[in-house]
Design brief:
- Helices cover 22% and strands 32% of the residues.
- The protein is built from 4 helices and 9 strands.
- The strands form 2 sheets. A 7-stranded mixed β-sheet has the order 6-5-8-3-2-1-9. Strands 4-7 form a two-stranded antiparallel ribbon.
- The longest helix has 21 residues.
Amino acid sequence: MHRPDTHMAPRRRLWLARLGAALGLALTLGWLTPALSQQPQLHLPRVQLQAGMHLINAQVASTHQQRAIGLMWRRDMAPNEGMLFIFEEPQRQCFWMMNTYLPLTAAFIEDDGTIVNLADMQPLTTDSHCSAKPVRFVLEMHQGWFARRGIQPGDRLRGEVFRPR
């Protein structure tokens, strides 16, 4: 006959108490509120970028919370609109599409605006799509936006956020 471990109950209660405290802190600080509300981010700052002769109107996600939510819960987006994710330091960036309904292409971009690689991402998946090398910028656009305009790795985007080499 299996006898339950009487020492597990206090450990389990302690773990649940710590989890509850962590979630309470996250809600208090506002880290999870937008994510739990399932509302898209529509009022982030914007920047205008240029890819050859094409203009891009990009929302800027520059905080941890803004980057974590990204384009989640968006059902539509203007044809030349996207989201530019800005990170503090260059590192290998990986993205997924949890709670994201729009098919997107991610452009992983160096500090000077040069596209390192592109990744097509399918809606509502948790597949990882990563930069080929460390970058600080990732631009998400409608899937196929770059391909339809002949923009590919090695091409350079222009905008006030990018530094020349």
